[in-house]
Amino acid sequence: MTVAQETRELRNPGLPGGEEFDTLIYGSPPLAYPAALSQYVIYNAPDPAYITGRINVSAFANLGAATPWPFTNTNVPLNGHICIPRGRGPFPLAVFAHGNHSPFENSTPGYLYLCQLLASHGIIAATIDVNFLNGSNFGENDARAIVHLEHLKQFRNWNNTSGHPLHGKVDLNRILIVGHSRGGEAVGHASFFNRLAAIGPVVLDGSAGLGPYRFGLSAAAAIAPTDRQFVPATGPTVVPDSYFIIHGSKDSDVFTFEGYHTYERAHAVDLANPTVSDGKFKAMLWVHKANHNQFNSVWAPETAPGVAMPRPSQEQIAKVHLGALALAVLLDRHEYFAVLHDHAVATAWDPAGTELVSQYQDPQRIFVQHNQEGLGPLVVSLPVQGTIAADGVVATRQLTALVGGAATTTITARLAWNAAGSRLLLQVDPATLPAERYKVLALRVGQSNEAANTANRDQDFTLEVSSGSRTAVFPASSLHRLLFPDPPPFGPAKIVMQTLRLPVARLVECGVDPSDLRAIALVFDRRQTGVVYTGDLQFTN
Amino acid sequence: MPLPEPPKVAAVEVIAAQPTETDRAAVAHMGATEPKAVYVVKVKLKAKPPVTSMAWALYVNDELVSKYWEYADGIYFTVSDPQFFTRHRGKQLRFSQNGTDFFDTGVKLAPAPSVVENGAIGLPLQADVLK
User: How close does chain A come to B35, measured CA to CA in Å?
Assistant: First the structure.
C-alpha cells in the first residue's frame, strides 16, 4: 500500500473523536498556598469523588527552599486534571507530566489540549502537578518518575474502589505515560522503576507508602526530554517499554537533542544475541522549526518571535503524532502505526510545509549492518554473513554524537564521496539472510551540514538491491527526503537520520527474490559530492 | 543566539546540620555508620540562571554532585560523608552541561566544620539552615 493510499484510509488522529467527556480536577486539600502560589489554589477544590492522599518523596528529592510550598517533601500532593470519557469503559489511560519551569507558574494545565483530544477518542487522560520539584534544582528526575507512577497508582485505586465513579473504568493494561522536558526524561525512569521491587533503600511494595507499581505500560512518550540528569546506580536508564520521542530543531532550552541518546539506548542490538528482540518498538519525530515551550500551552515561547513555527502549528503536530501513537497502542488501531513508520502518512494533517524527520524500529527485525561491533572497518553484522566494499567512498565508523551534547555510546558510519558513481557495496550470503520473512528493508541515513553537501538541498543517492541477475534500483528520494539540517539555536547542527523504508513487495515487483538476496548497494550517483551518516540497515516489519 | 553561560558563584559555605530520617536510611543502606552530621553546602550565586530543563551539572573537582536544590541565594547540596571534604580539599567547583566541557567557578570547596562526638543534638535542622 502506498503512503497516499494509507492516508486516504485513515482519519486525522489530531482531530477530535466522537466521545463526549468530562473534565475535572483531583487534589489533596486543604493546602494553604500563599499568594505567590495562588495558581495552585484550584487543587483545593477538587471534585468530591477525586480527593487524593499525599506521598513521601523525601528519599528522592528536596523541595526548592526558595518556593514557599505549604507542604514538605514528606507529604507532597497528588494534584491533577482528568478528562474522562462518558460511558462504561473500561478506557485506556494516558498521563502527562510537565518538566522544569518557574514553580510560580502552574505548568500542569499545559497539556489539557492533548488530554481533551485523547478523551474524545475514548481514553482517560490526565495531566499531573509536579511543580513542587521545579526550580533551580538538579538530579531530581527520579522523583518526577516516582510521582508519575504514584499518580498511576491513584488511578488503580480508584478503579478498584467499589462505588467510585472510575470503578472498573480504567484499563490498567493499556497505559501511556507522556512527559515533557525533564518530565520526558522521567517517563524513561518511570518505565524502568515500574518493574523494580526497590530503589536503593526505598522498598516499592507499599509498606512505606510508595508502590507497588508493575503497570501494563503500552509505551512511554517523551516530548523534548533531557537525558541522564538522573543516572541510576545501574547506569544510564534503558527504557524497557516501547518508546516514542518528539523534539524540535529550534529548541532553545534542551538545545542539544538529549533524548536521542535515550532513544539509541532503548531496544538496541544485543551483540551477544543480535537476532533476539525484546518485542518493543521505538519511534522518533524530529520537527524542524519547533521550539521547546510551545508543546506546553501555558509556557511562553523561549525563542524570539519568528524563530519557531507558530504555536498552533506546533500543537497541531503534537496532536497528530501523539494522537496516532495513542490510537495505535491504547485503542488497538494498529493502522495508525503507519504514522510512526513514516511521518509522510501524516503530511495532509500536519501544517503545510512542515519539515520532519522520523525514525522507526520495529520489534521484528534482523540487522544486516548495525555498526556496533566497534570502530574498525564496516562489516556485515552477524549472523548475516557477507562483505562490504567501498569504491570511491570513504567509509569510517565514528562515535561522535550526531546531535550535540554528551558523548554517545552508539557508533554510526560516515560515508563521504567526491565523485558521482561512488558506491558502497554489501554482498551477503543469502543463506544467512531470511529477508523473505520481513516486509521492509529499512536504512537509517541522514546528511550533515559539511561542505560536501549543498546547503539547504536534499541529499540523494540510489539504493540497489540484487538477487541473482535481477537488480532493483530506487532513488533514496523516492522513499523519503534527506533534509539538510535546520540551523540550531546554539552550537553545531544536528544530524538526524531518516529511516528509509523500502517495502519488500516492491523488490518482488521488480523481480528481486528476497529469499535469494545477494547484494545491497548505496550508489552515490545523484550528487557529485556528499557526506551522509548511516545508523543501521535491517530487514523488518 | 549565544550559548547559555554557567552561573557565577559568589561564595561557598558549609554548615553542619542534623541528619534527617531520609539521610539515616540512605547511609544505613550503604552499610556505613550513622553520621553525626550532614553537611549543607550552600553555593551562593551572583545571579540565579533562568529555570530551564537543561541544567548546569555541578562538580567538585571531577566528582559530580548528583543532586542539588535551590535556596533563596543560590543552590545547595548535602554531604553525609565527611571524607568528601578531605578528598576535595581546596578543589574547584565547576559547572558542565555535557560532562565534557567544564567551566571553573573560581571558587573552591570550603572545609567542613568539625563536629564534636554526639554533636548532632546541638546542630541546627537542615530546614533552618536554608532559611
Answer: 16
